[in-house]
Specification:
The complex is a heterodimer of chains A (267) and B (508). With 267 residues, chain A is an alpha/beta fold. Chain A folds into 2 domains: 118 residues, no CATH class; 135 residues, Rossmann fold (3-Layer(aba) Sandwich), CATH 3.40.50. Chain A is built from 15 helices and 8 strands. Chain A has a 4-stranded parallel beta sheet with strand order 2-1-3-4, with helices on both faces. In chain B, the strands form 3 sheets. Chain B has a 6-stranded parallel beta sheet, with helices on both faces. In chain B, strands 8-5-6-9 form a 4-stranded mixed beta sheet. A two-stranded antiparallel ribbon of chain B has the order 11-12. Chain B is globular. Classes of the chains: A alpha/beta (267), B alpha/beta (508). The structure holds iron/sulfur cluster. Iron/sulfur cluster binds next to helix 14 of chain B.
Amino acid sequence: MRIALFATCIVDAMYPATARATVKILERLGHEVVFPSGQACCGQMHVNSGYLKEAVPVIANHVAAFDAEDYDVAVAPSGSCVASVKHQHPMVARSCGDTALEERATAVGAKVYELSELLVDVLGITDAGGQLGSYFPHRVTYHPSCHGMRLLRLGDRQAQLLGSVVGIELAELPEADQCCGFGGTFSMKNADVSSAMLKDKTAKIIATGATLCAGGDASCLMHIGGGLSRQGSDVTTLHLAEILASTVEEPASVTGDIRVSTRKATR
Amino acid sequence: MSTFLGMPSLPVYGTGNLHASESFPKAAHRELGNAQLRVNLGHATHTIRDKRIQVISELPDWEHLRDTGSAIKEAVMARLPELLEQFEENFTSRGGVIHWARDAGEANAIVAGLIRETGETEVVKIKSMATQEIGLNEYLEGQGISAFETDLAELIVQLDHDKPSHILVPAIHKNRTEIRDIFLREMPSVDPKLTDDPAVLAAAARAHLRRKFLTARVAVSGANFALADSGTLAVVESEGNGRMCLTLPETLITVMGVEKLLPTWQDLEVFMQLLPPSSTGERMNPYTSLWTGVTEGDGPQTVHLVLLDNGRSAALADEMGRSALHCIRCSACMNVCPVYERTGGHAYGSTYPGPIGAILSPLMTGIQAEENNSLPYASSLCGACYDACPVKINIPDILVHLRSLDVDSKRGKKKIPTQMDAGMKAASWALSSGKRLGLLEKGLPLGRLATGPAKKITKLPGIAAGWTQSRDIPAPPPQSFRTWWAKEHRRPKIDAAPAPSPEKEDQR
Ligand code: SF4
């Protein structure tokens, strides 16, 4: 299958290892990965902050970039960006009266999957250890991000994949379905409430005794990881893709250079 | 925006207790400092949340019920004028009297006038959001009329001269020790040895209220539903105090928002299955009272209904926002909201707190209403409210819509753009081209250098300081994914056709 990677702006710029891991997993399964080079961002930050006018060029760019590429399905290592492409792009195009863009956006949106969705529903992966060779000998807890959970209805796909990684010890996160408090510009506009939500989330993560918290959205992981770092905790965050890409031969580093963590900070 | 035939072309915005008096972040900051409030709220919301999930899990057709409820409400909004007239005809033909009120001021004046006609200076009240919304109690006090709340939680709030902080559990922010202290301080002839045992507190309230019920000749209520095909009003409650108010006095005055209509009796069946599980987490509520005009020799012989607009037409005129009027005030959205759970209801200023308040208040007052324009931002858009709402109001989408109305309403009005405006504009430029983003990413190593040996950013200026108040930012990576990919794929594979260089592709 020819799979187009939508890296998402935050992964592209801040967490390239997550995108490389996504490529690795798909190539390991024998698929061809392409990277539509015109891509930049889904525009969710603009839409969610009410800047619809400013979102339009961002959305138009995304649609053009993927329209121009020849591929079977697209994938993004982010539930929230996939939800934006699927739901927000046609909605914004409609609200500004651009029916041509709405149609193209709907077509592009129909072909994009969140990583676990693609792996489970399209590629039939149910056993990460057996089918992907995933190996990750650490105690891990898992935060299901809101948009993957409620907008894409990912259910337990991500957790199932994680659970089937060889060597992993999954520690259940109490009240996992509670938002971490990120919410894009909410974290700045309502910094106090956002911080209070984050504090409760990090406390629960730390109490699990896990080495790190995994998830499917880099932005939430940056938020949670940033909070853990500020609190001086050793617990870090890591994207699901990197855990799935990790093998016995090439294990993922949990103290990688770009994690927010006090551990690597002392390196 | 589209409007309906027969609607005033200029929307009449709501007045009364719909306005926040300070911005949400400011109010939230204060409320977050109240540790007792956080404990009380966390405990109470989690208890109701669990009960609700439990009861709903027993209903195999729950999703179907939600869809049906949503469809009925949508149909009501589409033909509201017609249904209102049908209701008026039926209610009037059964001896009821209808009054129309455009806003809070008109409604208050009508109610006060009706009470004055009876010669009474005391009324008993059933818990009602509409009368909170218009500030009826305060208005009546100014007119020399005392209104006594009979719902236990409403009574607590009233005795404490406080404001409700939740639409179903108005005293959710108080624990039982605080309640005992309020009773000891404010309730005449209460036993000075009162304990904080809930049963003891309830008994004290009952004794206090019984005296009022037996003497009151006028009652004021709200209504949960109005059935157009029969002219019937419905009150759904748990305690039975409402039933007393609806049956004992001679005069009954009801204040109800125009959106509470249902087309037929049969529709009530759907909502009676949706409401109790969503609000109190009960399979069924203990008391449901229905009345149709006047029944001779039984109950109040003078029955009034004040139909209240107060910004509802304005909300209805907003195509994206009008489904906020589907709300049946069950409070499920606030019980699951992580923001409400931490700030409590007072932070929202308006009578309507939580997720529904964050959309309903600005819809009813107009987004230009200062401070209410901060309400649509009081959400991380986690979507828990939408999932919990029994009539499937897509609160997150309406929040985003209202944010865009807010942003647009300020365009071109400010001499100097805000940091957020400038940032969004710049980001739109940078993020609408792979090439431009790629060029900017070339600067990542510089950012990396700037973070110093700790490889993290701990302090940012301006609006971004909100982020670094409790979170670090990782040092940027040495190279972006795009850069890595371009390097990896620069040379075309031997057996593949020559691919255009990534730089070229970027031109597209
Ligand atoms: S918006 Fe929905 S969940 Fe919230 S109070 Fe209204 S009906 Fe209940």
